[in-house]
Amino acid sequence: MLRPSDKRKPTIFAYILRRFAILILSLLIAAVVLFVLLRLLPGDPANALLSVGADQQQIEAAREQVGSNLPLWEQFLRFVGNLARFDLGTSFVSGKPVVEEIAARLTVTVPLALLGFALAIAIAVPLGILSAVKANRWYGAAISTVSQLGIAIPVFWVGILLVTVFAVNLRLFPSGGYPRRGWQNEGQVLYALALPVLTIGLVMAASLIRYIRSATQDVLGSDYLRTARALGASFSQALIRHGIRNGAVPIVSILGIELATTLLGAVVVERVFALPGLGSMLLLAIEQRDYPNVQGVLFISTLLVLLIGFAADLFQRLIDPRLRERATGAAT
Amino acid sequence: MTSLDLSTDRPARRHSLSLSIGLALVGLNVVVAILTLFWTPYDPLNASGGRLEAPSWLHWVGTDRLGRDYLTQIMIGARTALIVGTGAVAIGASIGVTLGILAAFATRLLDDVMAATLDILIAFPTLLLAMLVVAASDSASLWSAILALGLAISAIVARLTRILAKRVLRQDYIIASRTSGTSWLGVVAWHVLPNIWPTLSVNFALQFGLAVIAEASLSYLGLGAPPPNASWGRLLQEAQGTVYTAPVGSIAPGIALVALVIGMNLFADGLRDVGDPTRRRSR
Amino acid sequence: MTGNTIDLGELSRLSRKGRRSILASAALAMLSTSTAALAQDANFDPDASVVIGSLYEPQNLDNTAGAGQGINEAFNGNVYEALFTLTDAGDVTPGLVAEQTISEDGLTYTFKLRPNVTFHSGDPLTAQDVKHSIERVVAPDSKSSRKKSLATISGIETPDDQTVVVKLSARSISLPYNLSYVWIVNDAAKDLNAGEDGTGPYRLDEWRRGSSLALSRNDKYWGTAPTNGEVVFQYFTDATALNNALLTGAVDVITSVQSPDSIAQFKDNPDFTVTAGQSTTKELLAFNDRVEPFNNVKVRKAIARAIDDKKLLQSIWGEYGTLIGSFVPPTDPWYVDLTGVDAYDVESAKALLKEAGFADGFSFKLDTPNYDPHPIVAQFLQSELAKVGIKVEINVITANEWYTKVYKAHDFQATLQEHVNHRDIVFYGNPDFYWGYNNPDVVDLIKESEAAANTDAQTAKLTEANRIIAEDAASNWLYLYPQIVVSSSAVTGYPVNGLNSQFFAYNIKKSGN
């Protein structure tokens, strides 16, 4: 017979297993959906290789080269077969392995998203808490108003405005582009990413402020905080000791979604700043009907998103005792 | 599950303010949009002005590269934005609510699968999903953009609906009413929908704003509403090359867009505060 | 892989955005020399790194393996050389050929190769390499579009390592010109998509997809050494981002500027040099001449008269660009001023429409590629044609769909496209081309022009063809793009015409600071 305290470990493990199984299943579903969706796209990927002047013979040859002359089921079998070996194929257009290019692009997109995300948290957490705690002061209201404004502005517009001010007029940062040697020169990369990161950070902070403000308000109105204060803790002591842990719970799941969104939603920002990231790869691949590249990017994106969701969920369960118990209950 | 009520809470004394500012901004947009059906300062095809004229009494916001009146374009853009927002939310709501309710009633396994699928769809940013759908449609059109955004919204709505509906279904009186023989459709119509509606409608208003922004981003990427539908996103994109010679073109449509989205968000905030007596009381 | 590929060649291609490649006349004689070119020659840095900003990233590294524009820009003359070189001034000059002899009947060309030329791998250039390189393009299983222009080649012989004999089945006056597109590659090179093995003044250093392509100086180059140490092509997808990059010093030169508004920022600024070159890029309203109502010459002429090309050009390009009355730019020898044919005249347009039985106008669908400047041109046509009662329904499509629907299936009424090709009037001699213009006289004239014994005869034939297509309003030629290169004033010696998308980098000088 197990005592309750012993019981918790295996069940959390079971929960992880179950989540993991769902993860794999989701990935498979995603792969199938991607394949079908892409085959619905009109246009022949072979066109990407052709030009004005090509004759019928050349068109057929191009179709053969990219495999778009094969029956759909055969294309699908090839796709799934390769996927099982984690081979995402080779680009129709460049002839290079998709995995290789994705890996190169991730060195741009991942730092961009993570830095933007970190900046957003650095801005949003203090401002969000401040605006909740000091809601009645002018700056509390001002923060809410500015964040209200921030979520209403399209990210590309923010990017364009930042370029106009900081790159073109003040010459503080480059307007776009990415150093050729990449991370071999960290300084240059950080310099190149400064404005894109600022763009993402500002826009994301605007929406995060709302969540953090709301979570803080919930904490402020909660019984345990009142109890703590009644027991003699100062306001800030109570807030720090009880508020952060409790308030963080809903925020973590929001953060998970936001991080995933940023990672994939970097498309627009990458376009504004001419960055060779995953988003611009996808955009180009869609235009060229480069199926292996589109599939590859979407598949990897889905994987990343699922992993982030998985991590956020797990983390949430670890910090929240109530949820931990619920997870235990659900899994038994 | 954590609270999906992604709300900001406002002090009670500002409730009416949010609602009224929101209503005013959205209302202005609606009035302008309807007005364009009957009257615009110039015919939208009238290219009689000079190239990139600065604002003047003849052209309040100047002219574009072809010499067309900018104000006219922006006003028509208001109509496009309304169509995009309303269309996308309508599609998203009808699909999303249906799916969400079905999921809420579904058996354990099916519910899990649906929840997982919805999670994937939600995790996929609206924009990527929209890009794919737009790219998949035969030729770019306003409707493919709307459909795309609607589908993206439907995933979010479905998830929210599922959670809300399950919460309602757990209530004792529902269980009682079901055991007493009310059909599940009846339960949905009489209990579930009225209960979840306030929260859903707030979410619809927020999604409206997001759809308008997403359409602008699609247009910026060259995947949005094609001409001749003047859309603010496309106006911004077209004006990008002339930002130094004619900056007004890069600013005016953006302001119009931000005003509508803020209006819709404030409206949502106000709606929530008014529609949620518990929250109002707690302040 | 190389055997199974497609060459895009001299023909305009649909790059990922279906953008233009710049092709110019081989006969371009007079060019404005960049005044700044003389300025800073004295103190340039021989090891400078020159950053070239471009919108045309290569899709792959083998110009016979697919899309060519970007790779031609980066590699032609820089990494790979050809038997002949099309100079930026438009002359065809010997490249790897030291000496050429043409037989009396014009059917046998004997080329002596330059001695002591080596590939980057160290192998010497031999006649075998040349034979291999040409055969790559003309072999029976080749899908190269160049194959067509080199179709008259009936055999290639290599009597010794330094001599190549090319035999033709019919006279081909453009042979040297056409050979200027054929990269001479090492016949031992395996996969040209993975690397390169050319004879040019630069080697490929690194290609970072989506961002940049770097070339470094080949210190063993047989010819004059480059005046810089390294060239980096930095790629952008957005013209505004590209302009900003020049403005902020991230790039040294932009290969071709796409809007007049950005020029304003550079024009009166001593830090930048703006150079106007010669363009051959034409913006075209192409009708499907096979289908109602555009199979009616009167309708086509009426539309030509209903559109104020001058206002359009002014809207798109401000004070830049040139009006054209047919498909031939002023730099071609067979150019004649045909802007007077079907000049802007709304009243006569209406009259013609009435004669054609469309007194009340009609409506048609205009397939419009989704990238600049086509959407804005489409909107202009919409307002112009509304004045004569013609309703234009704008249908925006991607470059890929354009290719499927318009180019391959001929499933369209009218479309917009830019045609960048040099000497592309020959397209009007092909009744199967997408616009379906079929006039037996023009077909014959164009065939005869290629078999002409001398350039005068060629010019006479093509001039005649040019007049006929203008009178037939075969398409509606809206305007000729300007070709504008902008650079930082620290940089000189770059090509200003960018002919055939080429961008020779070896003469670029960058002043040391």
Q: What portion of the residues of chain C fall into strands of 2 or more residues?
A: 15-25%
Question: Share of helix among residues of chain A?
Answer: over 70%
The end-to-end distance of chain C, rounded to whole angstroms, is 46 Å
Roughly what percent helix of chain C? 10-25%
Characterize the main sheet of chain A: none
Protein model, in words:
The complex is a heterotrimer of chains A (332), B (283) and C (513). Chain A has helices at residues 4-39, 56-66, 72-84, 98-133, 138-152, 155-169, 186-220, 223-230, 235-272, 278-288, 291-319, 321-331. In chain A, 78% of the residues lie in helices and 0% in strands. Chain A is globular. The relative contact order of chain A is 0.14. The two termini of chain A are 15 Å apart. Chain B has one domain: MetI-like (MetI-like fold). Chain B is mainly alpha-helical and 283 residues long. Chain C has 13 helices and 20 strands. Chain C is globular, with a radius of gyration of 23 Å. Chain C starts with 48 loop residues before the first strand and ends with a strand. At the A-C interface, helix 2, helix 4, helix 6 and helix 10 of A face strand 10, helix 5 and helix 11 of C.
Spell out the blueprint of helices and strands.
The complex is a heterotrimer of chains A (332), B (283) and C (513).
Chain A: H1 4-39, H2 56-66, H3 72-84, H4 98-133, H5 138-152, H6 155-169, H7 186-220, H8 223-230, H9 235-272, H10 278-288, H11 291-319, H12 321-331
Helix pairs in contact in A: 1-3, 1-11, 1-12, 4-5, 4-7, 4-9, 5-7, 6-7, 7-9, 8-9, 9-10, 9-11, 10-11, 11-12
Chain B: H1 15-38, H2 70-105, H3 108-123, H4 126-136, H5 142-169, H6 172-179, H7 184-220, H8 232-239, H9 248-275, H10 277-282
Helix pairs in contact in B: 1-2, 1-9, 2-5, 2-7, 2-9, 3-5, 4-5, 5-7, 7-8, 7-9, 8-9
Chain C: E1 49-54, H1 69-75, E2 84-86, E3 92-94, E4 97-102, E5 108-113, H2 127-138, H3 146-149, E6 153-160, E7 163-168, H4 175-179, E8 202-208, E9 212-217, E10 230-235, H5 239-247, E11 253-254, H6 260-267, E12 272-277, E13 282-287, H7 297-306, H8 309-317, H9 346-355, E14 363-369, H10 374-386, E15 391-397, H11 399-408, E16 414-419, H12 440-450, H13 455-471, E17 476-480, E18 483-488, E19 491-492, E20 509-510
Parallel strand pairs in C: 1-10, 1-11, 14-15, 14-16
Antiparallel strand pairs in C: 2-3, 4-5, 5-7, 6-7, 8-9, 9-10, 11-18, 12-18, 13-16, 13-17, 19-20
Helix pairs in contact in C: 7-9, 12-13
